[in-house]
Amino acid sequence: MNKIFPKDFLWGASTSAYQVEGAWNEDGKEPSIQDTMKPFPNTTDFKVTADFYHHYKEDIKMFKELGLKAYRFSIAWTRIITAQGKVNPKGIAFYNNLINELLENGIEPIPTVFHFDLPQSLEEKGGWGNRQTIDRFVEYCKVLFDNYADRVNYWQTINEQNMLVFAGRVLGQKKKSWKEVFQGNHHMLVAQAKVMQLFHEGIYEGKIGPAPNISCVYPKTQKPEDVLAAENMSAFRNWLFLDAAAYGIYNHRAVQILKSLDAMPEITDEDRIVMRENTADFIAFNYYNSTTVEAFPIEAGAEAKKAADQQSGFAIPGYFKPAKNTHLQKTKFSQWSIDPVGLRITANEIYDRYHLPVIITENGLGQEDTLTSDNKVHDDYRIDYLEQHIEQVYLSIQDGVEFIGYCPWSAIDLVSTHEGFKKRYGFIYVNRDEFDLKDLKRYKKDSFYWYQKVIADNGLK
Ligand code: BGP
């Protein structure tokens, strides 16, 4: 059966600034927490990555050849504003050029304003734990909107705020107590609301929304206690973040869990009003896999556990703990479960709750690729993964979900959050190894030609 998508569907691809750009200290860019962090064992740092900063014109040419209708990228705060609070004209110029180059090539720019790369200068003042970071974020976003909003239709606020909270250790965050983590999380929620207010009250056109990592949660068994555990996990992992962004409220089940962890943040009356009055226009979400949990009775030795990485489970005594799902296969690289149908369940759950247009801003398979002697990459595993997920996007649209686009991770090979360059996701191969930068030449993988056809056909034929 032909699976043809709506006209104007945004077939895209994704990256983030610190994972793709390189040029970490050029043209006035200052260090972010990703630059100052010690690399994970046997993985490269973020100093050069795919060197997109110097190759963006050539890369955008390839994006055009791929047929991309949209490119989802992030803006590095540390290129735009200095530690002294000054605007850096060279940083402004880079994203101006990037946006113009995309538009000239018929590609819609979809920027995220913050993707894990907090300026080190703000981290030193307490990072998101410091309320003043809210104001710094609003000032930064105003600069972005004033400079670029005339050419941008869709803005995303914060990438995977929920993963910064639950798996912060692999995303550049220092070890913190739950209390500290959720006070910082609250500041991010308020910052996001204030930025949405600024955007909506300004002269800007376009839409703005959050970009969390959302995954449906299954109970291990039919036992009511396990079903309840799954609902509680979903409230804490997913709805805490989306209820705040879309309704401006704290999810009631999440509040109970926060109290049980003694991690309820301080919330002022003004915070509640600003959140309530300023909500999202659309929902961008990243989907890699689903989650499975079981009940976790409070008993001796039961301890809360944070997630090892973005896609692993975590445990809260009295509520839930991770369980194995015997129906799902796992990725080779990180042992993340593969669940295309879960994408359809997740998209429907989001649309049921919020009735806002949705776009997937990340979905993909990280794996080691091999460049053959004739410069080909036969990544049929990636094609399989993406095809199965695109099919579920199609079925979600048939279900009635207002899906505006799909941007798999990643447009081009880049550095993984904590597993180096060898964990590749791109349609375009970048010729470098973990530590040997080689010539950084670009090669089209088999998945490039496959996705090119999907886009040209506007679906699966
Ligand atoms: C998401 C992040 C991305 C990206 C992706 C893949 O959580 O938003 O930045 O890296 O996961 O994860 P990883 O790089 O850990 O393989």
From TrEMBL:
Keyword Hydrolase in the entry? The reply is yes
| Segments passing through the bilayer | none
An example Gene Ontology molecular-function term: beta-glucosidase activity
Taken from the UniProt entry, a GO cellular component term is: cytosol
Return the PROSITE patterns for the record. Answer: GLYCOSYL_HYDROL_F1_1, GLYCOSYL_HYDROL_F1_2
Q: Which InterPro entries match?
A: GH, GH_1_N_CS, Glyco_hydro_1, Glyco_hydro_1_AS
Check the record and name the SUPFAM superfamilies matching this protein.
(Trans)glycosidases
Q: Per UniProt, which keywords does this protein have?
A: Glycosidase, Hydrolase
Q: Enumerate the active-site residues.
A: 362 (nucleophile)
GO annotations under biological process? carbohydrate catabolic process
In terms of PANTHER family, this protein maps to: ARYL-PHOSPHO-BETA-D-GLUCOSIDASE BGLC, GLYCOSYL HYDROLASE
Q: What protein family is recorded?
A: Belongs to the glycosyl hydrolase 1 family.
Q: What is this protein called?
A: Glycoside hydrolase family 1 protein
Q: Give the species this sequence originates from.
A: Ligilactobacillus ubinensis
Provide the taxonomic classification. Bacteria, Bacillati, Bacillota, Bacilli, Lactobacillales
